[in-house]
Specification:
By secondary structure, the chain is α+β, with helices and mostly antiparallel strands. It has one domain: Hotdog Thioesterase (Thiol Ester Dehydrase, Chain A). The protein is built from 8 helices and 13 strands. Strands 1, 2, 3, 4, 5, 6, 7, 8, 9, 10, 11, 12 and 13 form a 13-stranded antiparallel sheet that branches. Strand 11 and strand 12 form a beta hairpin. Helix 3 packs antiparallel against helix 6. The termini are far apart.
């Protein structure tokens, strides 16, 4: 039932009301280390509806080559209801919406773990996020602690579309002067050998003209290293994209805030890591995932150095594993390692650093880490076989 509310007009009051400086508040968002209690769940505000222009602008801005996220005819030809939202957009929205509660007080995001895309997201759907605390580690009064959380994003039907874990470096508040108890487990890794993926396609179709010819399952070889040719120079466009994706951490768009930081995160605003991730995946997409039917997920990955406006990003991939799936569907899975570098091409990075470019930075001594390396992650894709789909 429609209700009519009558509100009387009012004269201007700002000049008449006395100015009192004794009642000032400055709302604070995010949480300090002691507030991350084991099992606590944060329901994140707002949510975000993914309209067609928003989804396609993300896919093109972040250089996506898979037509599932660009071409509605292609998506429907395979069996999807309509065009899909890029999985990296889904991840960025789930992540961004969580920042106000999870990490607006954080010093750094440390890593991604067990990212699983549980169902496709269609254009027009609305996503909301929630996060559960899995682990908290105290490192001293004057040191930030480590928190591990699991975030879920659901669509408007309350169906889970993505699940992932991440580790966050979080300081205690200034009022904490004694040791906090360690709680939970730093890892909840689980096998996904029996992971079930429900996709709507019924079998191979001839769609040769809509994708390239070198990204089918049989085109990849174990141990193969692929240098993705093009780079992408980051401009201040990253600042509006940060807030468009729901991320409220001032480190990414407030120069006054970022200039007060110390270390490599100081100075100009640091580019939101999820955006860096999306650009690197996009740079690799026409060589790796153009013929993918879905992103299964990402096993483990880290941002190893910050990115600022003016940096140019390049990507490299290494094929780690291949596995046949149902032969009647003409599909298989590939596992790759995606590495991002800045201000140096992949060719030059291999010439200078060799095998070390693919070795995990966290396993190296600090003086052996690669300064131009910005990102590393493992991913799994469900990919068409050319013999069946061409």
């Amino acid at each position: 039932m429609t209700r009519i509310i009558s509100i009387p007009l009012q004269e201007s009051l700002s000049e008449e009301e006395p100015i009192e400086l004794g009642d000032i508040t400055q709302p604070q968002y995010g949480h300090f280390l002691e507030e991350y209690e084991l099992g606590k769940t944060f329901k994140h505000p707002r949510g975000l509806t993914i309209f067609p222009a928003f989804a396609q602008e993300f896919a093109t801005t972040f250089m996506q080559a898979n037509p599932l996220y660009l071409n509605e005819h292609y998506a429907q030809s395979i069996g999807f209801e309509r065009m899909l939202v890029s999985p990296l957009m889904v991840l960025n929205i789930a992540f961004g919406l969580s920042v106000q509660n999870d990490s607006e007080q954080a010093i750094a995001h440390l890593g991604y773990y067990d990212v699983i895309f549980t169902r496709p997201v269609y254009i027009g759907e609305t996503l909301q996020s929630e996060t559960k605390v899995l682990y908290r580690r105290w490192r001293g009064v004057d040191k930030p602690g480590i928190v591990r959380v699991r975030t879920l994003a659901r669509n408007q039907n309350r169906e889970i579309v993505i699940s992932y874990e991440r580790a966050i470096l979080v300081p205690p508040s200034e009022t904490v002067l004694e040791e906090l108890s360690e709680s939970g487990s730093p890892t909840s890794r689980k096998t996904d050998e029996n992971l079930v993926i429900e996709l709507p396609f019924s079998g191979p179709k001839s769609l040769r003209s809509l994708t390239g010819n070198n990204t089918y399952y049989e085109d990849y070889r174990l141990g193969q290293i692929i240098l993705h040719r093009n780079g992408r120079t980051v401009t201040d466009e990253h600042i509006p994209w940060t807030y468009r994706l729901g991320n409220t951490h001032p480190l990414h768009y407030d120069r006054q805030y970022s200039s007060t930081r110390t270390g490599p995160m100081s100075g100009e605003p640091t580019v939101f890591g999820g955006i860096v991730f999306a650009w690197l995946e996009g740079l690799a997409s026409r060589d790796i995932s153009e013929n993918a039917l879905c992103d299964i997920g990402y096993t483990e990955g880290y941002h190893t150095n910050p990115v600022k406006t003016g940096d140019t990003l390049y990507a490299l991939s290494r094929v780690l594993a291949k596995k046949d799936c149902q032969s009647d569907l003409g599909i298989g899975t590939i596992t790759t390692q995606l590495v991002g570098i800045k201000n140096m091409t992949g060719e030059h990075a291999l010439e200078q650093y060799g095998q070390a470019i693919f070795q995990r930075e966290s396993n190296k001594q600090r003086n052996n880490r690669i300064p131009v390396k910005i990102f590393e992650i493992e991913r799994r894709l469900l990919v068409k076989k050319g013999a069946a789909w061409i």
